[in-house]
Write a structure and sequence with these properties.
about 80 residues, alpha+beta, two-stranded antiparallel ribbon, 3 helices, 4 strands, about 40% helix
């Protein structure tokens, strides 16, 4: 699947949060890469990624963009990423 980051952001952006799901880690990695590049052209740094994949959580930590909270709060919802 070729992920279109602009479409995902347009569809899933709520105030300053993007809430999305992907069928596989490959699609998520593609989205993260494309979205960060796309948003950086507007001077915005996408950070505080919360994912439920241990592998991708480690990758986010390596790039210092991981949110280390136990429970994520988004629009009044409490989400457990683990």
């Amino acid at each position: 699947m070729n992920v279109n980051a602009a479409h995902v952001i347009e569809r899933d952006l709520y105030v300053d949060n993007v809430i999305s799901s992907f069928k596989c880690e490959k699609d998520l990695i593609e989205y993260i890469t494309e979205a960060r590049q796309w948003m950086s052209t507007a001077g915005m740094n996408l950070r505080s990624w919360i994912v439920n994949s241990a592998c991708l959580r480690t990758a986010a930590e390596d790039e210092n963009v991981s949110d280390t909270c136990d429970i994520a709060k988004v629009l009044g919802l409490r989400l457990d990423p683990k």
